[in-house]
Description:
The chain is α/β, with parallel strands linked by helices. Helices cover about 40% and strands about 15% of the residues. It is globular. It has eleven helices and eight strands. The structure holds phosphoenolpyruvate.
Amino acid sequence: MTRKKIVAGNWKMNNGLQETEILINELLAETNHSGCEVMVAPSFVSLKTAIDSLNDNDIEVVSQNVHQSNDGAYTGEVSAKMLSSIGIKTTIIGHSERREYFSETHEILKNKVDISLQNSIKIIFCFGEELKDRKTNNHFNIISNQISESLFHLSSSDWNNIILAYEPIWAIGTGETASSDQVQEMHSFIRNFIAQKYSNELAQKISILYGGSVKPNNAKEIFSMTDVDGGLIGGASLKSKDFFSIVNSF
Ligand code: PEP
């Protein structure tokens, strides 16, 4: 089974329009990325510019977040309908920073998933355990709960639009990466968990990315694991050379 290989850069709340344009120009200069699909997630204010600049290139511009309603009195929020209107086709949902700092619950994330699919927007769905969960051997429970509570109401065909991203919180932005064995163990667990609920055929088709301090010096080893289909990259995606070194690590 050949699954889609994907490397996605999450720029988070970094880079104004000018810095975004500089980074995009650097990305456009990197021509070699045939081994996988490449995505970048700039801030909302730069999305349209990024789309216009990368339109003819095969780097997809994706959103970092989406609101769970189509429109209405939600000051400061951005809906799936709005994202769709500027050409966004994929959004990240459930990043641990959204869960922690913006109190996004399983139920809210489930609604975000549904409204995105209704607007024909694909999803990179993030989840991951805290260090204390791993230390108490509760990490498999935490992950299965995060997945089942927000995604297991979906139909089999909905899963054509879902990419998963396992991001252990203790490895995000800390420089501490999960070992390739820990990543493989969790990705294989996730695939089996999905196979039990749906089917092995469906589970084998889902791309599962790893995120958490992926850098040029560790990407190759992580990406070589059987159930790892790419990465969601934070810090290293802000430097074009590092990002493309990771992109070319398959
Ligand atoms: C992330 O925030 O999704 C992430 C993986 O960050 P970093 O690569 O900086 O650990």
